[in-house]
């Protein structure tokens, strides 16, 4: 895009009121949080129950119409699931799309202050609202399956057995969420306390304050019983970058 | 409990149909997943929007009536939030409690197979359904605040400035979710493929298969600008155990 960062418009549903200095509406930031989350939490209502239902799902932002779209462009969310699952059946039945909420969250640190009530997390969290419907176009389904597989390990798709079998395609459902609205909330920085605690010398001599960085890391790959080859470069590069980047980010945000 | 493990009864809302060999209904397993999750995703409906809303929140299973209750006993879920937030206002208004769904998920590994469609995660995920209402009893509120603070770092509460100030208590809302139903889904083990792929020698010579362990880890604590003391033992013990246990679990489940 270059010139400016697109934002989701602030409306009743997505406007962050509490600690709104942590609020972000930029598509780029929101989409990056979604795409870096290994599990998304997808909420929807069913006709027969008073409770909303949350499903943990794998998903990824993308654009089938314009696959070269930037992460900060308007994108759709593709979700992957078993074809006969409840959410897929509801997505199939909903003409306008089923209203869903999708959440993606990372914990980046434990923020420990003098008072329990000034404790916090460093975190990146985002929520998207949209309408989910089942994708029927075979080409778009293939686009989404490749997108989602490559979100687990970049470049994995073309290193697996292709093309998919008929049975594989038949058992896999793809939901597309047209995004209606979204927002993110991000907390970075060190511990903070109220003045009356900061002036309490005894307290300061007693309580450790600061940030414990938290990050997801990957260990050494463990080969299957039938594996025959060494860990390929595209995998080891990814694991190394994943660990380095996550550790660095969690450390970077420990300071104001 | 000793003699047997209590289970949430299987009903329409919580019965897992897909891959039901991965389903778990034991309270102990479900509560342990919830209590080990740093962020819970809480879904609820609002009167004014077609979309369910998901909030990332901090929470913990416990029993105010019987604080010594075992993790496998019937427990309530306590959630912590800002007192004037939307969910707190809805919880205040709902006489019978507001219907909510709470999800807790851990990714434990990337399971990489010959076919993209046989890829999976090792994971532990759980979903609880229940009715949330605001806690008004001051003693129960204190119980929940201590419970939740100690879930971030065990034993932290009594190492911070106590008692809470009036302003702190007034600005903190506690929601209690009476659990109606729940289930968990757990995947462990190595990669698996269909026979036709296993018999494809060229494919096996080309595709790496196995599990990449994934775990949350904590880094070296970074002191605040005003911190004066060394990292205390209760913190360093916790961080060491957290890292060792998570790494070991992710590694243990890479094998069948």
UniProtKB/TrEMBL annotation, chains A, B:
In terms of superkingdom, the source organism counts as Eukaryota
Q: Report the Pfam families cross-referenced here.
A: Pyridox_ox_2
Name of this chain's protein: Flavin-nucleotide-binding protein
The source organism is: Fusarium vanettenii (strain ATCC MYA-4622 / CBS 123669 / FGSC 9596 / NRRL 45880 / 77-13-4) (Fusarium solani subsp. pisi)
Lineage of source species? Eukaryota, Fungi, Dikarya, Ascomycota, Pezizomycotina
